[in-house]
User: What shape does this take?
Amino acid sequence: MGIVIKQSLNDENGLKPFQIRANRRIGSWDVLYVSVESKELDESINCLQASMVDKYEDCWYNHLFKDEELIVIYQDKYFKVSIDHKSWDEVIQYGLNNGIPMEQLDFNPRTMKETDEFFNLKRND
Assistant: This one.
């Protein structure tokens, strides 16, 4: 599962490996709730990065999560950390060094529950 900001992409080919589960417009951003098969994770990350806007034009990130793992994907690098913010120092510093404001480096939502709430989804458990 994860979050992709549509405006982070030069083209929508980066979305091909993903199933879009929901979307929400926040200001000028289209926030997509996506899922991908675990066995396709590495290929999906590469595909997403290849379709992201040039880092020197504007730095963006997208993120995926599963259980306690968080994967933050920048255009030229990605980090596998915990959903616990105490493990994010390097990820946040990378974003700050590339011009992303601190308030945007919260990696929300990052759990199924938070994602369901963000997209106003109901689960049939």
Notes: Residues 2-114 form one domain. Residues 41-51 form the longest helix (11 residues). The chain has a mean pLDDT of 95. The CA atoms of residues 95 and 105 lie 7 Å apart.
